[in-house]
Design goal:
Blueprint (H helix, E strand, L loop, with lengths): L1 H12 L6 H5 L28 H5 L14 H20 L3 H23 L4 H16 L6 H26 L6 H14 L4 H21 L12 H26 L1
Helix pairs in contact: 4-5, 5-6, 5-10, 6-7, 6-8, 7-8, 8-10, 9-10
Length: 253
């Protein structure tokens, strides 16, 4: 949807003729047009779209053309279900659980988009930030003061690292989407958990990045998305952040 919008905006800005795809995909959103097989265009019926179950019943193939269905679909569906169960177990049937579920689902979407496109869209990061501030307006996760400071500090921390790195190396080390995602995490959990999130995400990112270079999956100059590591660290912090901080402080004091 974003790529279509960008292309449309470019055509409008350059005063070009209406692009061919504009007429076909004039109403493009999460519900329209209906899901279809990317190979033959077969419209996915509701019983073919049940998470995980339909994948197994269909034998991982399209019911029409028998083209293989990517394993990514059931893996994402299963992971979403599992993480949602963990959230429900952690918080019980509470307002905090509902907020944490929204938080979890948006992080999953951001993680997959960043892994695939190396992009953290404003359409998700900014609503996540504002949702965190609104949730904490009622003190669901933390107090509003900590939430506002966390949002500002989260953005400024990575913004400062970005410009310092560019000043030293002349290169851009990360994207602006990372700033906004950390700001959103700060809005949700407050400034107190930002050091933990930055530390965990940096360590995990460094370990996995070096490991991928060693095994030959990545080249040294190849960019590695940082959003997934921030998302993982943020999700862990939302569920167990304060316990982790208390354990760490207990060990050093």
């Amino acid at each position: 949807m974003m790529e279509r919008d960008w292309k449309t905006q470019c055509h409008d800005y350059l005063s070009l003729d209406e692009p061919e795809f504009e007429h076909e995909l004039k109403h493009l959103n999460l519900s329209t047009p209906a899901s279809r097989c990317p190979h033959c265009g077969h419209k996915i019926r509701f019983w073919e779209n049940i998470p995980v179950i339909s994948y197994l019943l269909l034998g991982a193939k399209c019911s029409s053309c028998k083209a293989p269905i990517s394993i990514q679909y059931p893996l994402v569906e299963a992971a979403t279900g599992l993480l949602s169960l963990v959230v429900a177990w952690r918080f019980g049937v509470t307002l905090e659980m509902l907020a944490a579920l929204m938080f979890t689902w948006i992080l999953i979407a951001l993680t997959l988009i960043d892994l695939d496109k190396q992009l953290l869209p404003d359409n998700l990061t900014l609503p996540l930030l504002w949702l965190g501030l609104v949730v904490n307006l009622f003190g669901v996760v933390t107090d509003l003061r900590s939430s506002v400071i966390g949002a500002a500090a989260g953005y400024l921390v990575l913004w400062s690292v970005f410009h310092l790195f560019r000043l030293i190396t002349g290169k851009e080390g990360m994207g602006y989407g990372d700033f906004k995602l950390l700001a959103a995490l700060g809005a949700w959990m407050g400034w107190q958990l930002l050091p933990q999130i930055v530390l965990v995400s940096s360590v995990v990112g460094a370990v996995l990045g070096i490991s991928m270079i060693v095994v030959g999956k990545n080249r040294r100059a190849q960019p590695i998305p940082f959003g997934p590591y921030l998302a993982i660290a943020g999700w862990i912090a939302l569920l167990w952040g304060h316990e982790i901080n208390q354990l760490y402080l207990g060990l050093i004091l």
